Amino acid sequence: MLLTHSYAPEHSPPQRRWTQLIRSFRSEGWDVDVVTPVAHAPDGRRTLPRKQAGRPFRVDRGDFGESVRRVPYLWHRTTRGGRLINHLFSAGMSIPAAALGPRPDVVIVTVPSLPILGAGWVVARMFRRPFVVDMRDAWPDIARDARLIKGSAKGIVERVIIAIQDRADLVVTVTYGFARTLRERGLKNVATVTNGVDVNQLASLEPVTLEKDRLDVLYLGNHGESQQLDVPIRAAALVGDKMRLTMVGHGVRRKELIALASSLKAPVDFNAPAYGQQVMDYYRNADSCIVALRDDWKSFDTTIPSKTYEVLSIGRHITGMVRGEARQILEDAEAGHIVPADPQALADLWTLLAHERARLQVNGNGRLWVERNADVTALGQLYIDLLLELCRGTTRP
Known about the structure:
Structural class: alpha/beta
CATH topology of the largest domain: Rossmann fold
Strand content: 15-25%
Number of domains: 2
Largest sheet: 8 strands, mixed
């Protein structure tokens, strides 16, 4: 049984990760029960027809034959507070919804939705089954860096998160760095299954042309607080007409970023979220793709942006504003240039790339790196082996 705050037909990091993993589970003949809210992202309300979005407490079949049991959600604005209240409500509804399903062999909860973490622990205790925490971000470290919770509540929330991690039968991280951090805190029940992509479904794009008057840079992903996207916008304003920055996606800071670009008269186009072939069209038209995480949160030393593997696979040059493990991956794959989160430094790089377009050529090592380290089939089998060991009582660190 999987408890998650987002699942297909929504498009989100947990949806992408768990769609891939559940495909592997189902290929083994496993029954999978997903407990998740009625589809309502990214606008905080249902925009899809009921047949696609699902109905509360109704069970539908997913693309791979998995059972998907929907829970209610609260209409909310796309703000930090609005999302938190909605997550609290849906997490609470997930407990009775899970009780309506068959008794599983193992209960998995995928974080960073913190309320669902508590709900998953309750469901596992209710069924008296092993409890797995799929820790996709570095919690509670990110909460501390982002100052999400202040005052006395901060310490309480951190202690609750750590206590649930301690009591989990297995904690699965998506980076080796965060697994190392947890082990340094004394956790022994830690394993790593990174995010990945199906390279066979991602075309390797032709190299960018060397004859072009303008540098086209693409950012595709969340417009939130974690990415520090004001930096590339300010950099684009410094570069001016020699470039065009295309921003695709949504997030809590999108309106602020649009206002900033307008005030600076920056050469920036903002576009709605894209999926499927439209994503590939954006990649095909780009000379360089931004992979970014803010550099003033220490927790991002052990965080890898979810789009990293996808951009590596298609073979586009990467402008990396990252540190720690994500930086190491880009350097190992020789996939582009790493710059600090500084508008002038970024503007200098883009000016150089605009004048010397041969520097945009990458050697294909990115795709090879993904095939060797982030192939979804191999990652799915690794998760399968971990769960089998856990249910047999033979799990090792």
